[in-house]
Amino acid sequence: VAFKDIDVAILVGAFPRKEGMERADLLKRNVSIFKSAGEALSAHAKKTVKVLVVGNPANTNCLICQRSASGIPAENFTCLTRLDQNRAQVQIAKRCDVNAQNVSNVIIWGNHSSTQFPDVRFTQVQ
Predict the structure, then answer these.
(1) SS3 helix, strand, coil % of the chain, rounded to 5?
(2) d(CA 58, CA 81)
(3) Are 116 and 108 in contact (CB under 8 A)?
(4) pLDDT score of 113
(5) What is the pTM (predicted TM-score) of this model?
(6) Catalytic residue among 95, 112, 113, 114
(7) Sign of CA dihedral 64, 67, 72, 77
(8) Beta bridge partners of 79
(9) Annotation says 112 is catalytic
(10) What is the pLDDT of residues 56-69, one digit of tens each?
(11) Distant-in-sequence, close-in-space partners of 107: CB < 8 Å, separation ≥ 6
(12) Which end of the chain is more exposed for a tag (fewer CB within 10 A), N or C?
């Protein structure tokens, strides 16, 4: 049985965006994947399981999975949005004319789309 008594789940599979697909099309395809994963986690994993979602759009997929995993605390779910964070970090570095390695504490908010924005309040540039 998938997810039986696991402590950690790393969900890397998501439907790949194909040429001509709109974001809405991609989300529709991923809903079933991450809803099923959440339901399976709820049914079989330990209630203390820690879940990491990697498949993009990771933050949306993570939310779908979390909302489908009744009985598992929301704080046990997280996702990787490092690619988006790196993009923001590089843009800040270019604007400040420094190497991206000299930019830290970049935070991004929003969905992996046009609603996403960098929060530079805590960003440090050296």
Answers:
(1) 40, 15, 40
(2) 6
(3) yes
(4) 66
(5) 0.74
(6) 112
(7) positive
(8) 53
(9) yes
(10) 888 889 999 999 99
(11) 85, 118, 119, 121, 122, 123
(12) N
